[in-house]
Specification:
heterotetramer; A: alpha+beta; Rossmann fold; 6-stranded mixed β-sheet; 23% helix; B: mainly alpha; MetI-like fold; AAA+_ATPase (chains A, D); Spermidine/putrescine import ATP-binding protein PotA (chains A, D); transport (chains A, D)
Chain lengths: 360, 276, 276, 360
């Protein structure tokens, strides 16, 4: 049965797509190439333009500028119901007066698929989303996770080459969300459809995506694999938004950079930008033990202001000499946990010190 | 806001006076509305409460009077026409208001509910002048126009409130699945608003049957509606037939409301409801 | 539900027919309500639209007629009494319903709004019978009782909806800070419902002024209210004074609504509003 | 000025407090002793009875059974407005028709405090919550964090000996919540008032509390310091609710216990209960390197089913031989990350293996 399932994906090419509401740029000119079959996540805070970009892809929002291609076909003038794109809405938007089977069969009915074929394909897709036997359930009888699966089935049963998902897990609780993340990836892998997934949850983006596009204030900040985004953020915004970070402003000093009158040893050379920041992940800052300075490490003097026990770790807040607060995360197995008010030396190894530019 | 926890902060002793107030208010409100029911079964020629002998003679008198029957026929046909016009027009107006910008929507809403905000007598006077001018006094057409103006705000308000709690993303979902905008409305929106449409139609019907003041002015003599004839009869002589007709009115109104409520509640259990 | 994104899915071309419908509906609704205004300024003895000569003679005729003035006085005093009774009673009933169990509350609500659900003519007939029995026909007391029954549901509904969106945890907070339940209502709840109380009182006032059918039955001859006298005049002879009075009615009603709206909106900016 | 502030706290003694709604126990007979000045958190999921207990303390809910003392004074028959207890509500419940100063002065006004004294104490408490100069602000002009501070000021200005807080931070976003946690602790320390704090957020409870009472289905499961609760949970519920845990069902075998036919080496001896579980924190499970078995460790064979990159760590899901899934958390610096489908050996040291009883 499953042999019929793979629908394949199609490449998406966006050229200079832009959208303004009144005087405000909801999306600045954006160019993006999404290979066929990729799982791309649009990640950003609310108002970052991620939903606007998704709605332009779906056809519900008309871009002011730019071009959009699905494969070779230009689609930026096509109305949404002719784009043949599957879409999963934030609140699922299931038709509440129809059964599960009627919901899923709706796109097939519109395409004039025959009754028998319809039933076969509904059963097929229900088995893919692990909801065998749910055909005659009413929508109101479904749990959140089941409704999510039905929405996914309805958006893929007509074998679209592109699947758009608008924060589909935001209404679920944490446990179900973790489970559905794995499920959605599994279904993506089974169908091979090009998937654009919108979320504001950085953890979700890291876990699920082939690539992530991080947006802020209407502009794409960085596109890359989860690992690239986490370990090599290009801007202070990305570094701060993905995982907690200590972001320290730097001053350019010839070839190098300084923080609070101290030369900084860093992994990369400073990028070409006006505003420069040092990124130090809380788990990479170490309390220096006694007087033996590690080679190739930055050392900062600081005073401990607060210690929080968080179960699997301590979060230690410390004020640097110029007053800036940083957070240090250390394991509960640490030998010598400093006390509040204690003066400590913090070490950041050169390979953990990244220089990024300010937000564009 | 309201929760069972909140209740407990007022002790039962303190709540006693609230209960008393409420009971007094309720008795005061119910008495005049329902006193006609026992009166209508009186056998006496005079109004009696409580009736000394019971009989159904005033019901017989109503059903055997060709004048009352004629008035009833006029009321019913006007009400039916009113429903057929006010329901689709009111739905389309509400849909337009729900989908347009908030500013345009609130201007349109203000104008549509104007006849319910202005004194009814003023609307009736205006309607009388307009219909005189158009030569439609004492016609069912004229009466229907008057009643549509009165019924439309009810339909509009019911449909607008239904559309406001309706999840338009379902329409959007249908479009994303390949349906045209029109087909999405027909396939998805209308079936889900079924119950509200029925409610709106029944409200339009009742508001037309119940309307007296416009009828008073624009339908006289043999074109009188039932409610107009009741009012006129009462100001002339005291005729207990009125009590019988009032009781029938109550019966019909309450049945309609009960039916709407029951189907409304059932719609929470079976498909077709607007909740989700 | 409604969002600027949703709008964009209907193109402007497609929306044109919706706009047209709406415009037609609006014109149809507004015309009869407002046509009396130009007519009232006619100088002719006959009804004219548009008026050939303008004059204020029908306004002068209204203000110089002792009969019209007497009817106006009766209407105003009845309305004032109605407000003074219906507002506090309606608030207490709404407060009781808001704080009691949902089941008891919905029974009480159903009974309180009964007079607005039943045909107005039925309520009027019942009221006529009750007041005849109590010997209160043609008295301001009787008329006021009738109008309170009609006005109370408005007060109740306005106050109940205000109380439903009121955050009762503020009352609870006041109690936790040392206030008795009664003091919490007086210090915290009432000041925040100020605007709704004013709205409810104005609605009660307008509903009393506007009431015709009960007035038709229970106040005759020299005890006639203004709206009753207007209706009776129109069925006898066509007197353009009615157009003048209707225009004044519109003026008063619209002013009241505008004042409520303006103060209501201001309350969103200054303390005393119910939002938070 | 600050010399006047400390209000001190009073001891709270609850004896067999119980409450039923209809046939359902909202709170089973609960006994709790809270020393003067303690910061105690009631932690549990919704419906666990934590809010019922708080409302009984406040006087808004009358218990069906039991006694309650504030110091030596029995209060279980006292109406709420005579208990002299400060309370901060979930939605703040600020009086929206009053200014900030009027809100804070309200409890003083009720107590007949004179105008001048009132003003002095309002200024004093505003300075404590860092809102100097906010006297004449309208409530609607306040941000979430400011409203929170005003609510706190209003609940403490009349120097109550007890302060109750009902999920006060649930409406704030994560950053502000972290900041307010520190603030609330600081104010608690300054006033010394006995504080009962309700939350469903285990992280918040760990960070803020002197002691935590964990509730589930109307019953107190465990009372202890954050460290005790995290490192020595007494029931499977507590282990699961505080920090993620792998919970494996055990079978008693003489003096010891077995899991899937394997004897388990554990830190503690099995408690006296019918249902026993092994608690293994994800960060304590290790991938065993090659064949050298660690002494004093449990070893489990497992197949890797999913690997999620979560930025600062990997979450590896693995199925044990009897089909049970466990989660292993490992640092991104791990030398040999296994692949999906690989068979691995998991190690759990004896000192990290805790045996707990099932939920009571």
């Amino acid at each position: 049965m499953d042999v019929h399932l793979p629908t394949g994906g199609v490449e998406i090419t966006a050229r200079d797509l832009g959208k303004r509401y009144g005087g405000v740029s909801a999306l600045r000119e954006t160019t993006l190439d999404i290979p066929a079959g990729e799982f791309l996540t649009l990640l950003g805070p609310s108002g970052s333009g991620k939903t606007t970009l998704l709605m332009i892809l779906a056809g519900f929002t008309r871009p002011d500028s730019g071009e959009l291609f699905f494969g070779d076909q230009p689609v930026h003038r096509l109305p949404p119901h002719k784009r043949n794109v599957g879409m999963v809405f934030q609140n699922y938007a299931l038709f509440s007066h129809m059964t599960v089977a009627e919901n899923i069969a709706y796109p097939l009915r519109i395409r004039g698929v025959g009754r028998a074929d319809c039933e076969k394909r509904v059963a097929e897709i229900l088995s893919l989303v692990h909801l065998e036997g749910f055909e005659d359930r009413q929508i109101r009888q479904l749990s959140g996770g089941q409704a999510q699966r039905v929405a996914l089935a309805r958006a893929t049963v007509f074998k679209p080459k592109i699947l758009l998902m608008d924060e589909p897990l935001s209404a679920l609780d944490k446990k179900l969300r973790d489970q559905m993340q794995v499920e959605i990836r599994r279904i993506h892998n089974a169908l091979g459809v090009t998937t654009i997934y919108v979320t504001h949850d950085q953890r979700e983006a890291l876990t699920m995506s082939d690539r992530i596009a991080v947006l802020n204030r209407g502009a794409v900040q960085q596109v890359g694999t989860p690992n690239e985004i986490y370990t090599s953020p290009k801007t202070a915004f990305v570094a701060d938004f993905i995982g907690g970070s200590n972001i320290l402003p730097l001053v350019r000093n010839g070839e190098g950079v300084r923080f609070a009158d101290q030369d900084i040893l860093a992994l990369n050379s400073p990028p070409d930008a006006e505003l420069l920041y040092l990124v130090a992940r809380p788990e990479k800052l170490m309390f220096s033990s006694s007087g033996e300075p590690a080679l190739d490490a930055n050392r900062f003097s600081a005073i401990v202001t607060n210690i929080s026990f968080e179960g699997d770790s301590y979060a230690v807040s410390a004020a640097l000499t110029n007053g800036r607060e940083v957070t240090v995360r250390c394991a509960t197995t640490i030998r010598a946990l400093p006390k509040e008010g204690e003066i400590v030396t913090l070490e950041l190894a050169r390979q953990d010190a990244l220089i990024v530019r300010g937000d564009t | 806001m309201h929760s069972s926890n909140n209740d407990r902060q007022i002790s039962h002793g303190r709540r006693a006076w609230l209960y008393l107030w409420t009971a007094a208010v309720l008795a005061f409100l119910v008495a005049p509305s329902l006193i006609v029911i026992p009166m209508s079964f009186s056998a006496s020629n005079l109004l009696e409460f409580p009736p000394s002998t019971l009989s159904g003679r005033w019901y017989a008198s109503y059903f055997s009077s060709s004048e009352w029957m004629r008035a009833t026929a006029i009321s019913l046909s006007t009400a039916l026409l009113t429903v057929l016009i006010a329901t689709p027009v009111g739905f389309l107006a509400a849909y337009a208001v729900a989908r347009t910008t908030p500013r345009l929507g609130s201007v349109a809403t203000a104008i549509i509910v104007l006849p319910t905000i202005l004194p009814h007598i003023v609307v009736a006077v205006g309607m009388f002048f307009v219909l005189s001018w158009a030569g439609l006094i004492n016609t069912i057409t004229g009466l229907t126009i008057g009643h549509v103006v009165v019924a439309l705000p009810f339909v509009f308000v019911v449909m607008l409130s239904a559309l406001k709690s309706y999840d338009f993303s379902q329409e959007k979902a249908a479009v994303s699945l390949g349906a045209s905008q029109f087909r999405a409305v027909v396939d998805i929106t209308l079936p889900q608003l079924k119950m509200s449409l029925v409610t709106a139609a029944l409200l339009a019907f009742i508001s037309s049957i119940d309307e007296v003041i416009i009828s008073m002015l624009v339908s006289t003599g043999s074109a009188s509606t039932l409610s107009r004839r009741m009012l006129v009869s009462l100001t002339d002589v005291i005729d207990p037939t009125i009590a019988a007709i009032s009781t029938l009115f109550i019966l019909v109104t309450v049945s309609v409301i009960v039916i709407v409520q029951l189907t409304g509640n059932r719609s929470a259990l079976v498909p077709g409801g607007t909740e989700r």
